[in-house]
Design a protein that fits this description.
- It is a single chain.
- The protein is an alpha/beta fold.
- It has helices at about 10-20, 25-35, 50-60, 135, 145-160, 180-190, 210-220, 235-240, 250-265, 285-290, 325-335, and strands spanning about 80-85, 90-95, 105-110, 115-120, 120-125, 140, 170, 205-210, 225-230, 270-275, 295-300, 300, 305-310, 340-345.
- A ten-stranded mixed β-sheet has the order 1-2-3-4-7-8-9-10-13-14. Strands 5-6 form a two-stranded antiparallel ribbon.
- The two termini are about 40 Å apart.
- The protein binds S-adenosyl-L-homocysteine and iron/sulfur cluster.
- The site of S-adenosyl-L-homocysteine has 16 residues, from strand 8 and strand 10.
Length: about 375
């Protein structure tokens, strides 16, 4: 019988097994799954389609022991601690406490028709990228698949009340998704399940700092999930200064794993680039990048795309964001070399909800 007492850690088979051990017929597990992932119920009380004894059994075995007395026991192991809203109201950042008191943040961004969630896979991060607030706080622990899933369900419930829904999920919050590979992929599978939450695989984007063995493994999954690589520098010297993991997996190795991914999956890969004034926004870096990305241009197709974003400020890094003009010049150099590039908008900066600004509530 599955051991986790967080029901969101279980896949559909494990829910079935659990209920079978309790002597329940199979259709009860479909009802439970439907309640969790379609109705978005999070207290056993709400599952009125289930017999009372089963609700009580679920309550005893799978609700969070930390729940406030006086409230119905909840399946949720994440407690929202604080919401911050941007001044235009379109970005909301929520700080959650996990059941052991560790903390993570997630962000909801409303674009015109999109409702994009940026979620975390770890509390803290072990990769130590110098310009990233999560990297600056160090690694605390991996999230379980259920803890990743719950961040999504939390916002999905809020949106549902407004007759709205999550349209896209980016794994670009706290942590390195490929350093917590199993749980991350399990969470995506659970949210992708057509009998449950049913968000299409192409609506997800995993962003990685460039863990080469995990990129190779991901390639073999033949997944429709989008892949983004945090590149930020076009030579090993600069990349190792900014992203220490580059010493382990230097650019040649990284880009050859990326090329293999595009060749095997025929899917485009995105490269992320936080523009830092005078450091990686120079024409020299732009030309080097353009040259390195030529390998993705084959047979008339270009299977790479560069997203540049002016650096977001963090407490322990003194580098500054590039100006708009520098960002535009960078983009022009890439485009003249046949590499597509988008300058992304900075969002939620004033509530520290921008890329690389998530930390465990110290800000
Ligand atoms: N660990 C993963 C995903 C989380 S970070 C990764 O590194 O890809 C999400 C994105 O924010 C990454 O592209 C990361 O490089 C970028 N980022 C980190 N700090 C930033 C900052 N201060 N300003 C802009 N982008 C930043
Ligand atoms: Fe970790 Fe990504 Fe931040 Fe680097 S940029 S420290 S990998 S969260």
């Amino acid at each position: 019988m599955p051991s986790s007492n967080n029901i969101y850690d279980l896949d559909q088979d494990e829910v079935l097994q659990t209920l079978q051990v309790w002597g329940q017929p199979a259709y009860r597990s479909s009802q439970l799954w439907d309640g969790l992932y379609r109705q978005l119920w999070d207290t056993p009380e709400e599952f009125t389609s289930l017999p009372k004894e089963l609700r009580q059994q679920l309550s005893a075995s799978h609700t969070c022991p930390r729940m406030d007395p006086g409230k119905f026991p909840s399946f949720s192991h994440l407690t929202p601690v604080r919401d911050l809203k941007s001044s235009d109201g379109e970005t909301i950042k929520t700080l959650f406490s996990l059941s052991d008191g560790k903390r993570v943040e997630a962000v909801l961004m409303r674009y015109s028709s999109r409702r994009t969630l940026c979620i975390s896979t770890q509390s803290g991060c072990a990769m130590g990228c110098v310009f990233c607030a999560t990297g600056q706080m160090g690694f605390l622990r991996n999230l379980s698949s259920g803890e990743i899933v719950e961040q999504v369900l939390y916002f999905a419930r809020q949106l549902k009340q407004q007759a709205d829904q999550v349209t896209n999920i980016v794994l670009m919050g706290m942590g390195e998704p490929f350093h917590n590979y199993e749980a991350t992929l399990a969470a995506i599978r659970r949210l992708n399940d057509p009998h449950g939450f049913n968000l299409g695989a192409r609506r997800f984007t995993i962003s990685t700092v460039g863990l080469v063995p995990a990129i190779r493994r991901f390639t073999t999954e033949h997944s429709q999930v989008n892949l983004a690589i945090s590149l930020h520098a076009a030579d090993d010297e600069l990349r190792s200064q900014l992203l220490p993991v580059n010493r382990k997996y230097p650019l040649d190795q990284l880009l050859s794993a990326c090329l293999e991914y595009t060749q095997i999956t025929r899917r485009r890969i995105s490269f992320e680039w936080a523009l830092i004034q005078g450091i990686n926004d120079t024409s020299e870096q732009a030309h080097k990048l353009a040259e390195r990305l030529q390998i993705f241009r084959t047979g008339g197709a270009n299977l790479s795309h560069v997203n540049v974003i002016p650096l977001n400020p963090t407490q322990r890094y003194t580098g500054k964001a590039s100006t708009r003009e520098r960002a535009v010049s960078f983009k022009i150099i890439l485009e003249q070399a046949g590499i597509s590039c988008t300058i992304r908008l900075r969002r939620g900066i004033e509530i520290q909800a921008g890329c690389g600004q998530l930390a465990s509530g110290s800000n």
